[in-house]
Amino acid sequence: MTLTEFVISTIVKILVVLGIFSALAGFGTYLERKILAFMQRRLGPMHVGPYGLLQVLADGIKLFTKEDIIPQNSVKPIFMIAPIIGAATAFIALAAVPLLPEFEIFGITVHPIISDVNVGVLFVLGVMASGLYAPLLAGMASANKWGLLGAARTVIQLLSYEVVTGLSIMAPLMMVGSLSLIDINNYQSGGFADWIIWTQPVAFVLFLIAGFAETNRTPFDLLEHEAEIVSGYATEYSGMRWGMFFIGEYTNMITLAFLASLIFLGGFNDWGFIPGALAIILKVSFLFFFFLWTRAAWPHVRPDQLMWLCWKVLLPLAVVNIVITGLVLMI
Amino acid sequence: MFEAIAFYLFSAVTIVMFTITVMSKNALYSMSALAAGMIMISGFFFLLGADFLGVVQIIVYTGAVMALYAFGMMFFNTTRLVEEKVRAPKLVFLLSGLSALLLVIAFTAPIVSDHIEAIYPVVDGVENPQAIGIVLFTKYLVPFEVAAVMLLVAMIAGIILAGKKMDESLTLKVDADDEFQKKGSK
Fold it and tell me: Which domains does chain B carry?
């Protein structure tokens, strides 16, 4: 492959991923409202289009045309940059995720991964972790007490749960012996019985719990807990800047669903008669549904319960899991 | 060609970011610029083919160290300017400039005279994390283990310092104080 081909194919991939995933993030809000409504015996959005399908479009128009208010005493450049960091880190993290198996289109073999770095898992987690600057800077720049409280909660929550994510992933990585997501996927190519979830169930549960905390989903959505701190870091935001936080959050959810299905649920290998591409889409959709299901079924936790859970329950469990895995691997 | 463009881009942005860090009077500007500069530095690691170090740079410096700085910043009002009192600005400028120049000379001197030799050259067919593991557990085994022990000591000390009165509830204590004061005022 020549340099020009490489550049063109990379740019095309980036544009496709950007387009599809920002659309998915928008569609995700519709799905969330519909599923929550279904679980609470309501109808959800019904008026715009058939079954409220065009609600996403209406919301988009509203967000784009809303006045962009910047508070007087805020630090303006940082206030304006913060939401962009949120959306950008979410999309950059996707760069190292293999989204689908290789396929051929118009006689060209396409690798649906933007950049195959050999430390893929670490890259994705690291970039997602630096996404904590979006709520942090937003809260600190907006000169608002709720914002500041939200920012403080962000740092505590995301820093603590990053540790759990890293440690929980360590055990499967020790088994595979590589940090590349493609290698991890190929390790499970033997079919249903080879999925890492059967050998590492504890790690899977820990990873999911920490993932909920890192993407700021309901049992742990203390960063913008309406009942306590209005809207946390996003209190002063309106219009498209607020929308960008939202896009970032939903893209992070999808990235996390991809990571969980690649590392624990067999990735994009063929699953019985289901071809690989369909298999991973099914797994990601199920995990996305699981996020929403949890939101409908569980109440918030208190901040002190959140810290207790992280440092006194999940962290020791993760360490014990690593030690046991190491012993089993050595013997 | 792309590598050259990327290198000059990253170095220019890094220098601009760290200049903002030093020069700005606003703590929030300095902090965000420092974080951005740390991320830009990881670009150099990626350009040199050291993917693992690049990612570690992002995770450790931007994800952990800078976030702790930010947490410290929350005790101040970051939307206000910081007025610094520098008594002898020329002396500060001269000293910092000289030390920066010395550092640059010290690090570039071996390159100019071609005396840099890789004692542990990169083995072909070994991936990045594995290459680092090999060097860490052969040549740098003792410093690695010593660092691990020191971190453990620091962690235990931190837990003991912070955890002494963890079981006492601060809110309950405040309530008790209030009642005490009410009784006293009667």
Answer: 1-84 (1.20.120.1200), 140-186 (no CATH)
